[in-house]
Amino acid sequence: MNWLELSGKTALITGAASGIGLAIARAFLGAGSAVEMLDCNPDVANVAKRLAEETGGRTGAHIADVRDYSSLERVCANLKESARSIDILVPNAGVNVRMPLIELGNEQVDKIIETNLTGVIATMQIFGPMLFGREGASVVITSSAAAMHGMLLRAVYSATKAGTSGLTRSAAMEWGPQGVRVNAVAPGIIRTPLTQAYMNQFPKREIAAQKQVPLGRVGTPEEVADVVIMLAGRPTRFMTGQTLFIDGGLTAGTSWW
Questions:
Q1: Long-range contacts of range 164-168, CB-CB < 8 Å, 24 or more positions apart?
Q2: Dihedral sign, CA of 5, 6, 7, 8?
Q3: Per-residue confidence of the chain (257 residues) as pLDDT tens digits?
Q4: Which end of the chain, N or C, is less packed with Cβ atoms under 10 Å?
């Protein structure tokens, strides 16, 4: 992992207690980075402790909801008070509800938008300045293949993820002069605990998903994490404003015709 030149750096990851976020935290630790793990799940402290014991790396844990601006400000203040800097920011927290658009209630719509889009913006507004001027500083946002590949029962989710791809491009233009690169990963169908529970409930959906993916399988959180640390590291030092699709070819096209 030395070729990534991530050793000695610190990454702050939201939605880090499980799924893709946890895999990203583990990948950074494997590359020699420290991680600050932020999640609304109170168990994030125990997760961070276990991960530190498992890897021998340095982890920090913060309980905060990306929908709550003040809680993010509190985390930022705590980091500064303890003289802990960050070099890499990974706004990863996200939620979804599988329902027809016209059946979604206002609270459900608000939660999806406030977590997946407003929460990403807030995370960048609050922690972004900590990256300014730091050598090799980088932001890697978790978008989704749904940003460009329409999916049933995910209309609002898809809208928020399309928004993060637009945010990635514009933020890259604004923050480039500050020495900060901004990119995004767009996972396809990934075997997280939530998607696994869905596939266990509806086994035919997993079979259908595999048929739609050219590589013929569902992805893993680790495969997404590999690309995140690549985007944060030296190999992509002249790349910014891009969204990379980690989807097994799902968005490449379809063979139905």
A1: 164/116, 164/117, 164/120, 165/243, 167/117, 167/120, 167/121, 167/124, 167/141, 168/141, 168/143, 168/241, 168/242, 168/243
A2: positive
A3: 688 999 999 999 999 999 999 999 999 999 999 999 999 999 999 999 999 999 999 999 999 999 999 999 999 999 999 999 999 999 999 999 999 999 999 999 999 999 999 999 999 999 999 999 999 999 999 999 999 988 889 999 999 999 999 999 999 999 999 999 999 999 999 998 888 887 888 888 788 888 889 999 999 999 999 999 999 999 999 999 999 999 999 999 887 77
A4: C
User: What single letter denotes the amino acid at residue 72?
Assistant: L
Pick the catalytic residue: 28, 127, 157, 245? Answer: 157
Q: Please indicate whether residue 198 is annotated as part of the active site.
A: no
Do the bridges between strand 88-90 and strand 59-63 make them parallel or antiparallel, or are there none, so unpaired? unpaired
